[in-house]
Amino acid sequence: MTDNQLTGDMGRLAGVRPVPEVVQAHQRLECEAAGPSRQTQYARGALTGYLWSLGQGQVAPVTGGDSAGAPDLATVTAEVDATLAQLEDSTQRTVPRDYIRGVHDALAWVCGHTDIRP
Fold first, then answer.
1. Do residues 11 and 105 make contact, with C-beta atoms less than 8 angstroms apart?
2. How far apart are CA 7 and CA 29, in angstroms?
């Protein structure tokens, strides 16, 4: 996302967070996770969660539900609930646990369930 796109997004929200704040969180984590040995499943999950919450993913990161544009707060919250279900029940898990934890932590922050940003 470019700076020009950010200017137009000043009033938009991803979950309960301003879009520029989510973009900044994504960029910060992307920089921290740069390099092959630092690209953990957790970081990949969190990065995917951020992008999806911004409407830049084709499908939801855990459920695989179709996405057309940025999801609303209810949809993001439902994806957080799906991550919790998969974390609690390994028979439902379709991707690595650390990836799901990364998605969960990013989306929980986007929804305002926590102030701790991945």
1. no
2. 21
